[in-house]
Amino acid sequence: MSTTDVRRDADFDHGSARSGPDRGRWGRMAHSPLGWALAGLVGVGLVAGVTANGPGPVPVLGGGVAVGVYWVVMRRLARRATPEIAGRGAGRQALLGTALGLGFVAVSTLLIVAFGGYSFSWAHHAVVGTLASVLAVQAGASLTEELMFRGVALQAIEQRWGSRVAVAATALFFGAVHMANPGATLWSGLSIAVEAGAMLGAAFLWQRSIWLVTAVHFAWNSAEQLLGVPVSGHTPDARLFSVRTSGSHLLTGGAFGLEASVFPVVIGLLLAMLMFAAARRSGNVVPARRADRRNR
């Protein structure tokens, strides 16, 4: 085995015991992928539920607390290092993710405008106050969602069944969760699964960074809200523009918003394929057989 192979095996050693044998059935359950995944989802979810709609910087502070909860779960229960939330390189990953998210929304929106689906007008809202409110809420929401879906759920499933199953399962779960949103349809759920779930899953495999996928998610949702476009069915009150739609729902996304338009679905699928291919070239895709072997 080459030194590169050793490094990659170490990087993806998501569940190896490092602190002696487990003590009893409950200990084994807590340290299993199912156990630490449930703990992480509940812990981060509770923080998000309490802080998501708080005033001022509360959502951002909640995101910081959620990172701490994630760190404790991963280090104490999953018993693994957490390079995906490392501070080193976080700024570079955040800038890359922001560019991807803004580019995704910009290209999708321009295509819809070009086909006559959207027209925009100034909403006459206070710029500074609106920006502060939108960015704080979206920062907290994006970080907590990515910690749960790409940080906890994807890596727990990946440990058992490999990267491909993990991306597919979390993408479907992500789409299913959004089925509860206003204006949701089967098409919007599938759209979210492909353009957001699969793309963000592939992006995580590509760079193995929570900061990258959080920034993509943050820039995407913030841009939509500031443009006045419904964000996954939620029509924004705080916005800089108002949008008028015309044409078919397949073009505009209807009441659900841009995510249910065919353009972001196609763009998101193409980006997911490109990033998954890049992740494979980097050795960041865990085969099912290797993931299974680590848990025997």
Structure write-up:
The chain has a domain of 206 residues. Strands 1-2 form a two-stranded antiparallel ribbon. The N terminus is likely disordered. The protein has twelve helices and two strands. It is mainly α and 296 residues long. 68% of the residues lie in helices and 3% in strands.
As laid out across the biggest beta sheet, the strand order is 1-2
Overall pLDDT score: 90
The H/E string reads HHHHHEHHHHEHHH
Rg (CA only): 20 Å
- Major sheet size, sense and barrel closure: 2 strands, antiparallel
Helix percent reads 55-70%
Number of helices: 12
Structural class: mainly alpha
Beta strand %: under 5%
Beginning-to-end CA distance, first to last residue? 21 Å
Count of strand segments = 2
Looking at the structure, what is the overall shape? globular
The low-confidence parts are 1-22
